[in-house]
Design brief:
mainly alpha; globular; 2 domains
Length: 272
């Protein structure tokens, strides 16, 4: 049964990864004032409407060798990477939630799981948008924040009656510390630099991540890993391009670090 569930969740992740990439491009087109003439996916180069067999996540890109069937122009890596990335994130999420989902003792873990599926999909849209165009779609940021707050509420509700809101599982001091270390730091950077160092979207994104993690040390790991990834990618790019003031979108690194830390949170906590 677990294998069937994990296969299903992997396929769902790939499909929603495709959806996320498509929505990111549509949101960008609307922002630029471009009219979207078709509800179905089209080739960005020749505007050919894609057939159903050209829209199969991951497999279609591999079968077409990353090119449009009609004009033979490159499709790009955003689509397959978003599909594979979200599929792997869902797979890790499935492993994390399977013990509580399989017990069927309460519907609350299932609700939390569904909320995280929505949040992960929204984060993927933000990841793609920021990576390609250096900003966040505001509507997706607010949707992510709303669902993160709802997720936090269900985390509290799912606590045993004998446990208080100041328990180690979910405590007010830890939640406040989480908000201080992630959105707090990025808000101060945004405020005092007047958006030169970070934009307003970064601290709003961090607020969503802090509400989901609600643990100071997990937020610290996200802060550390995101900066580590940024240096790992940014330093070679700066050396290759010989740019002293290389502009690098930080949102994708925050989201990647969060996905790693959250799905492996049990191991991080054991480590601590």
């Amino acid at each position: 049964m677990q294998i069937i569930f994990l296969v299903f969740i992997f396929i769902l992740g790939a499909c929603l990864g495709s959806f996320a990439c498509c929505q990111a491009r549509r949101l960008r087109a609307r922002e630029k004032g471009h009219k979207i003439s078709s509800k179905r996916s089209i080739c960005e180069h020749c505007k050919k409407q894609l057939s159903w067999y050209e829209n199969i996540p991951i497999l279609s890109w591999l079968a077409l060798r990353g090119r449009c069937k009609k004009c033979q122009k490159k499709i790009g890596l955003a689509e397959p990477l978003s599909e594979l990335g979200l599929a792997l994130a869902f797979l890790a999420l499935g492993f994390k939630f399977w013990p509580s989902l399989s017990s069927l003792s309460s519907p609350l873990p299932f609700i939390s799981f569904v909320l995280l599926i929505i949040i992960f999909t929204c984060l993927t849209i933000c990841f793609i948008y920021d990576a390609l165009w250096g900003s966040f779609p505001s509507i997706i940021l607010y949707i992510t924040l709303a669902f993160s707050a709802i997720f936090l509420v269900f985390e509290f509700i799912s606590l045993p009656v004998s446990m208080s809101f100041t328990s180690s599982a979910l405590s007010v001091p830890s939640l406040l510390a989480s908000i201080g270390i992630l959105p707090g730091i990025y808000y101060l950077l945004y405020f005092f630099s007047k958006e030169k160092l970070v934009g307003s979207g970064d601290w709003l994104l961090c607020l969503s991540l802090a509400l989901i993690l609600h643990n100071f040390w997990l937020c610290f790991f996200v802060l550390f890993l995101s900066n580590f990834f940024a240096v790992l990618v940014g330093l070679p790019l700066a050396l290759i391009r010989k740019e002293k003031n290389l502009k690098l979108s930080f949102g994708p690194f925050l989201i990647l670090a969060f996905l790693i830390v959250y799905t492996l949170s049990d191991y991080f906590i054991v480590f601590l």
